[in-house]
Prior knowledge:
This protein has helices at residues 4-7, 11-49, and strands at 50-51, 54-55, 62-68, 71-75, 86-87. It is α+β, with helices and mostly antiparallel strands. The protein has two domains: 4-51; 57-90, no CATH class. The radius of gyration is 25 Å and the shape is elongated.
Amino acid sequence: MSSLRCCMIDKNKNDEGLLLNLDLLEETREMAAIAEEKHKRNMKRKKEDTGKFGPKWEGPYEIIKVLGDRAYKLRDQEGKELPRTWNIADLKRCYT
């Protein structure tokens, strides 16, 4: 016995939808490849930032600006602003 869903299907619209999905498949693959490359770059950068015995902790640094979503701009003890932003996961609490 057929279900209502099977009885009410419009085969032409279904075929059009399937063809549209095929057209979008290449774009979806490209987006996945871009995301994979971004992930590989981030992993490479993270690997370069860590030494043989784990992360290289330096500092202390001062937080000079909160950028939101756990991102911060830092300044070293000489007052020089660090060139990139830092995520809270990369920071270690320091009391001076």
